[in-house]
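Bumping my old thread because nobody answered last time. Still need a sequence for this structure:
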């Protein structure tokens, strides 16, 4: 068994969730926050047989778009010691995926 973690944009999460469920996968959705942009995203946890990992990843890929988002970069001025923030464009997604081994899987 493998455990897949997939971090996706909130705007894609409904589609990812419904397509995985349609595909017969059991998924858990967690509300998460990206450490860099400090904005909300969605983390899916999905445990499945080794043979179905690629199928799950394909569904997640198909439903997750790459987007441009803006982060506020801070520039601390040296002369007047003023703090200025300015937007920096960042490319986010489609999905960030981790696949780990599962030592034991039980439903009791
Ligand atoms: P965030 O941490 O909010 O990152 C959003 C986007 O900002 C990233 O998109 C990347 O393009 C950029 N970014 C992140 N950290 C950066 C840094 N230190 N310097 C410059 N740019 C940086 P993605 O790579 O597509 O990541 C989307 C979200 O997936 C991340 O949101 C985070 O929640 C998660 N993630 C990505 N890589 C991860 C990792 N290695 N471990 C854990 N979570 C990760």
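Sorry it took so long. Here it is:
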């Amino acid at each position: 068994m493998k455990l897949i973690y997939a971090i996706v944009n909130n705007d894609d999460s409904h589609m990812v969730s419904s397509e995985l469920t349609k595909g017969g996968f059991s998924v858990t959705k967690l509300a998460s926050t990206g450490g860099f942009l400090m904005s909300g995203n969605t983390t899916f946890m999905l445990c499945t047989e080794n043979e179905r990992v690629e199928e799950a990843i394909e569904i997640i890929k198909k439903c997750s778009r790459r987007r441009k988002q803006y982060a506020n970069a801070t520039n601390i001025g040296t002369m007047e010691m003023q703090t200025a923030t300015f937007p920096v464009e960042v490319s986010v997604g489609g999905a960030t995926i981790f696949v780990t081994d599962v030592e034991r899987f039980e439903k009791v």
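Helices lie at 10-22, 53-63. Let me know if any region looks off to you.
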